[in-house]
């Protein structure tokens, strides 16, 4: 072995194969400097090829995982329409200039009692469809200490949840289209608190059972947490929630719902108000009577569902959009 080869071996740059070692270094005298250089190049080339392949595999795997996470976390964004495509005659008749101004001023507006958006026959039809769809309801996967409702995603054609599928009844279809038309109606009356809206094709049907005081703790519908606090994966999974600017709820319970006996009120307060453990006087409660519609700013209104002692149903559409920083 020439001096260059000895130096390479001593420095650990060249690692002899086992067969090469078994033959002993005595045989190395026949190896030229050129052979050693070629061996080194071959050795490192093979390792570089392996490392490159592994790096490519890791990058590809991470990319596919990230894309799947991003896509699943943004399925409403990726399956949505502009408000004009969702315009609805009934929504236009329901959402007036006064309703729009109240929403802009207070961050929330409630249409109930004489202003309820469903008449008796429409509510009855929707409730029958809800009963027919109950077998499709599934738990949300959230911590049971946070919420205990069961949900299914609904559009005006089919009820969807993963592999489960069934037809939506006419009554429920009417309600879905009514909710999805709200944004266009608000914009027609000059709503400017948010812009560049997208309306998901699917809305959520939720059921709270009345046996164990099922409820949902205080929360915002919009996710305002930064990526640094959440971590990248959780941040990507919350893509839909990060884009929410308006929440539209339509209650499909009996029109004579009594919160004193059945519970299930929607309680709310504005961001910056007292926390969830504060005196009840800091919260405003809304009865989830059938036909009642509630619209609020997803980024400003902290809300919770009080314990339910009767089965409670709500249809919810989350509108996505952008808000200009002040």
- Oligomer description: single chain
Integer average pLDDT: 81
Helix-strand topology string? HHHHEHHEHEEEEHHEEEHHHEHEEEEE
- Compute the number of structural domains: 2
What is the CA-atom radius of gyration, in angstroms? 30 Å
Q: Structural class of the helix and strand makeup?
A: alpha+beta
Secondary structure tally, helices: 13
The CATH topology of the largest domain is: Jelly Rolls
SSE topology:
Elements (H helix, E strand, L loop, with lengths): L2 H9 L6 H6 L9 H41 L1 H4 L1 E2 L7 H6 L2 H10 L1 E4 L8 H14 L4 E2 L10 E5 L3 E4 L2 E4 L2 H11 L1 H7 L6 E6 L2 E6 L5 E6 L7 H4 L1 H6 L1 H5 E8 L7 H4 L3 E5 L13 E3 L6 E5 L3 E8 L3 E11 L4
Antiparallel strand pairs: 1-7, 2-13, 3-4, 4-5, 4-8, 5-6, 7-15, 8-15, 9-14, 10-13, 10-15, 11-12, 11-14
Helix pairs in contact: 7-8
Give an overview in words.
There is one protein chain. The protein is α+β, with helices and mostly antiparallel strands and 326 residues long. Helices cover 39% and strands 24% of the residues. It contains 13 helices and 15 strands. Strands 1, 2, 3, 4, 5, 6, 7, 8, 10, 13 and 15 form an 11-stranded antiparallel beta sheet that branches. It has a 4-stranded antiparallel beta sheet with strand order 9-14-11-12, with no helix packed on it. The longest helix is centred in the N-terminal third of the chain and has 41 residues, at 33-73. The termini are far apart. Residues 6-29 and 67-72 have low confidence and may be disordered. GO terms for molecular function: ferrous iron binding; L-ascorbic acid binding; peptidyl-proline dioxygenase activity. One of its GO terms (biological process) is cellular response to hypoxia. Its cofactor is L-ascorbate. Pfam families: 2OG-FeII_Oxy_3.
């Amino acid at each position: 072995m020439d001096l260059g080869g000895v130096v390479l071996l001593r420095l650990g740059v060249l690692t002899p194969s086992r067969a090469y070692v078994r033959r002993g270094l005595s045989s190395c005298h026949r190896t030229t400097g050129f052979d050693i250089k070629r061996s080194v190049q071959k050795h490192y080339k093979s390792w570089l090829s392996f490392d490159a392949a592994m790096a490519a595999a890791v990058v590809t795997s991470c990319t596919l995982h990230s894309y799947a996470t991003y896509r699943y976390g943004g399925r409403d964004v990726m399956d949505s329409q502009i408000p004009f495509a969702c315009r609805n005659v009934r929504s236009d008749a329901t959402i007036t200039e006064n309703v729009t101004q109240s929403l802009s001023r207070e961050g929330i507006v409630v249409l109930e009692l004489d202003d309820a958006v469903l008449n008796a026959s429409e509510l009855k039809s929707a409730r029958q469809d809800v009963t027919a769809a109950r077998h499709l309801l599934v738990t949300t996967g959230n911590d049971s200490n946070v919420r205990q409702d069961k949900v299914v995603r609904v559009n005006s054609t089919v009820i969807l949840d993963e592999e489960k599928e069934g037809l939506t009844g006419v009554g429920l279809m009417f309600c879905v289209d009514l909710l999805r038309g709200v944004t266009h109606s608000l914009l027609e009356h000059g709503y400017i608190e948010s812009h560049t809206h997208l309306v998901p094709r699917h809305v959520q049907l939720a059921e709270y059972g009345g046996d164990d005081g099922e409820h949902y703790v205080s929360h915002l519908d919009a996710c305002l947490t930064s990526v640094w606090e959440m971590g990248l994966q959780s941040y990507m999974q919350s893509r839909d929630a990060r884009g929410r600017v308006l929440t539209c709820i339509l209650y499909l319970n009996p029109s004579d719902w009594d919160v004193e006996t059945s519970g299930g009120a929607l309680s709310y307060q504005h961001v910056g108000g007292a926390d969830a453990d504060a005196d009840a006087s800091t919260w405003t409660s809304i009865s989830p009577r059938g036909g009642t519609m509630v619209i609020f700013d997803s980024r400003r209104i902290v809300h919770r569902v009080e314990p339910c002692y009767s089965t409670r149903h709500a249809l919810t559409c989350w509108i996505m959009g952008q808000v200009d920083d002040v």
